[in-house]
Amino acid sequence: MTSVASNSNSAPSELGTVAPADAAFPADAVNTVVHRLRRTFDTGRTGSARWRERQLDALSRLLSENEKEIQAALATDLGRPAADAWLADIAAVHLEIKTARRNLKKWMSETKVRLPLSQLPGVGRIRREPLGVVLIIGPWNYPFYLTLGPLVGALAAGNCAVIKPSEYAAASSALLAQLVPRYMDADAVEVVEGSVPETAAVIDQRVDHIFFTGSPAVGQRIMAAAAPHLTPVTLELGGKSPVIVTADADIEVAARRIIWAKLMNSGQTCIAPDYVLVAKSIAPALINAMTDTLARFRPGPDTALPILDRRQFDRVVALLANHGGTVVSGGGVDESAATIEPTIILDPSVTAPVMQEEIFGPVLPVIPVDTLDHAIDFIRAREKPLAVYLFSPSRRVANRVIAETSSGGVVVNHIGLHCMAPNLPFGGVGNSGMGSYHGRWGFETFSHRKSLVSTKTRPDLPILYPPVTALKERILRLFF
User: Fold this and answer.
1) DSSP-derived 3-state class of residue 316
2) How far apart are CA 442 and CA 425, in angstroms?
């Protein structure tokens, strides 16, 4: 869930690019790790409900007992305040664990299905089985939530897992490598630090599923690396998530919620609002409301927000050049501190890079539009985003936006809430991803649904066997 091409929040997983630091995990040891995990899986112990429950409980303890260490790592990597670290990277995973723990036995139970009349007295069932050894490739922007969140689904489904954290969040990666073997079954869950060679080496071991969070460009490389082994993939990608604000929207609430979401993690969030399409008649009022909200949310002389590193900083700064619009708030950058002020750009050129690339930073373009039709057409003319947001009191308008746009999810009158709801599937569509997770959807992603049919040896009607007569055919047609 990130920016495009080399602007990814998961750059360490960019197969074929250069890593920023020496590999932390010897590539020639990766095959040993995967083989050990596979031997563990083959014993069958990860399939029991008890093992799954213990691993989920251990993961919960890992988070609870090391909250300060996690917050410190996130402050080092991302400059994230402790409260934000707790909400976005710790509490969010706890919610996933609680949901899985509460529903695990129900999810594991076989499902009976009706068979066609021709197969009676047979009984049909669906059994959910773990896939085996799975690879989870985490990003840098939420290095605990977006790495351990998928792990919840993998463990609940009874899999062994290789965790590949982002080395661009080096402190978080190192802490994961330290904590996971202390709490989890060390023969079933392993952290592999490193970059391209380690990621490629794990994929080459023919793991049973790859779960990747990153950019569309890197997702293509992951798919290409998985293709020779026919390894299934789940791709949680990004895209330019738009916000539509209609003329009759509650402007003050819309401004607060848009700015709140945009400021989270300095805008380095996959589901952050990427640009706003606002009715022309209220565009000045919305701009004023968002500017006032920025002043309240970021009081004082220093309003700038930290960016991950120089590479990301330079990329976002480049988007502030030649945008063709008007900067109505912010726009300041600090080269030495690698910080950028929250910036609102009014009416940028739609061909400018700021409107072509996922921004992944504290920059928000605002484009006035004449009608809802124009807003919908604008969204439909571009790649399918991870989310579409709408601020409007009208159910009719909401139904139109839901029906006439394609996206991973839609939130009406708020931003990002679908991501924090474990009973909803979270994922993209088209360029913004494939597959989904959270709650039962994560359990299903990491499970194989095996079809079972049991029947009796008697009666064994001769009508099914050759030779086929006209009478037999007429009778069979009655049953099919």
Assistant:
1) helix
2) 8
- Annotated active-site residue 335? The verdict is no
For residue 336, the enclosing domain spans 242-420
Residue among 193, 270, 341, 357 flagged as catalytic = 270
Q: What's the pLDDT score for residue 28?
A: 72
By CB atoms closer than 10 A (0-12, 13-18, 19+), residue 448 is middle
Residues 298 and 185 placed together within one structural domain of the fold: no
d(CA 52, CA 189): 12
Q: Which residues of the chain have pLDDT under 70?
A: 1-27
Burial 158-192 (b: 16+ CB within 10 A, else e): bbbbbbbbbbbbbbbbbbbbebbeebbbebbbbbb
In this prediction, residue 478 carries a pLDDT of 83
What is the crossing angle of helices 395-404 and 372-380, to 10°? Answer: 20
Residue 301: per-residue pLDDT: 86
Query: Which burial class, exposed, middle or buried, applies to 469 when counting CB atoms under 10 A from its CB (0-12, 13-18, 19+)?
Result: exposed
CATH number reported for the structural domain that contains residue 75 in this entry: 3.40.605.10
What dihedral angle (degrees, nearest 10) is formed by the CA atoms of 290, 292, 298, 303? 80
Q: For residue 458, what is the DSSP state?
A: S
Residue 113 host element (H or E): strand 111-113
- Catalytic-residue membership of 198: no
Predicted TM-score (pTM) above 0.90: yes
| Contact residues for 474 (Cβ-Cβ < 8 A; gap 6+) | none
What CATH number corresponds to the domain at position 275?
3.40.309.10
Q: Alpha-carbon distance 6 to 24, whole Å?
A: 22
Domain count for the chain, please give it: 2
Task: Look at the alpha carbons of 154, 155, 161, 166 in this order and tell me if their dihedral is positive or negative.
Answer: positive
Decide: helix, strand or coil at residue 321: coil
- Domain annotation covers residue 400: yes
Same domain, 148 and 32: yes
Q: Could you tell me how far CA 13 lies from the centroid of its own chain?
A: 15
- For residues 432 and 427, give the distance between their C-alpha atoms in angstroms, rounded to a whole number: 8
Closest to 206 measured CA to CA, from 157, 175, 162, 156: 162
Both tokens assigned to 292 = 């006032």
Closest CA to 258 of 348, 79, 387: 387
Asked if 252 and 207 sit in the same domain, the reply is no
Which residues on adjacent β-strands are paired with residue 388?
A: 410
Helix (H), strand (E) at residue 454: strand 447-454
271 contacts: CB under 8 Å, gap ≥ 6: 1, 241, 261, 386, 387, 415, 416, 419
Is 380 within the bounds of a domain? yes
Give me the catalytic one of 96, 236, 358, 383.
236
- pLDDT for 2 equals 35
